[in-house]
Design a protein that fits this description.
transmembrane helix; single chain; Prepilin peptidase; transmembrane; EC 3.4.23.43; aspartic-type endopeptidase activity; mainly alpha
Length: 158
C-alpha cells in the first residue's frame, strides 16, 4: 500500500473511530472505502497477493463473527476489521490483530480508570455523552482500538 493510500485510510479510520465514540456505530462507507483501498493495493501486487489477502480477511471475518454472535463485538467492528485485513498480507493481518488487541487493552484500562475515579469534564456534547456512558458502564467503542491497530499496521507497511 502506498503511503498516500495509507494516509487516506488513516483519515477514514479517524472518522470511523470518532463516529464510534459519538454514536457507537461505524459507518458502512468507512468499511467500503478501506476495503476498496485494500483491494487496489493488493491487486497492484498481483492476483495471488489479492487472493491470499481476501482469504485472510475472510478467515478474520469468520472468527470475529463468532465474537459478534456471542455479543462481544458489534457488527461494525467486524466489518471494519475485515475491511482493513483485505489490504494486508497474512503476516500483517496477524500484526493488525495484535496491535488492535493492545490498543483495546489500553482503551479498556482507560475506561476502567474513568469509571473508578469518575470521568473528567469532557469537552462538547460528545464528551458529555461519553462521560454519561462511562458512569453507567456502557461498552467500549472498540472501533477506536481497531482504528489504532489499523493505522499502526497500514502506515507501518507502505
Amino acid at each position: 500500500m502506498t503511503y498516500a493510500a495509507g494516509l487516506f485510510a488513516f483519515f477514514v479510520l479517524a472518522v470511523a473511530a470518532w463516529r464510534d465514540v459519538a454514536t457507537r456505530t461505524i459507518p458502512d462507507a468507512a468499511s467500503w472505502l478501506i476495503g476498496g483501498i485494500g483491494i487496489g493495493a493488493r491487486g497492484a501486487l498481483g492476483f495471488e497477493a489479492l487472493a491470499v489477502s481476501l482469504a485472510g480477511a475472510t478467515l478474520l471475518f469468520l472468527t470475529l463473527f463468532l465474537f459478534f454472535a456471542r455479543g462481544f463485538l458489534g457488527g461494525g467492528d467486524v466489518k471494519l476489521a475485515s475491511a482493513i485485513a483485505v489490504g494486508l498480507a497474512p503476516a500483517a493481518i496477524w500484526e493488525f490483530v495484535v496491535a488492535t488487541t493492545f490498543a483495546g487493552g489500553v482503551l479498556a484500562i482507560l475506561h476502567l480508570l474513568l469509571r473508578r475515579w469518575g470521568p473528567a469534564r469532557f469537552p462538547g456534547r460528545v464528551g458529555a455523552v461519553e462521560a454519561w456512558r462511562i458512569r453507567r458502564g456502557a461498552p467500549l467503542p472498540y472501533g477506536v482500538a481497531i482504528a489504532v491497530g489499523g493505522t499502526f499496521v497500514l502506515l507501518g507497511h507502505p
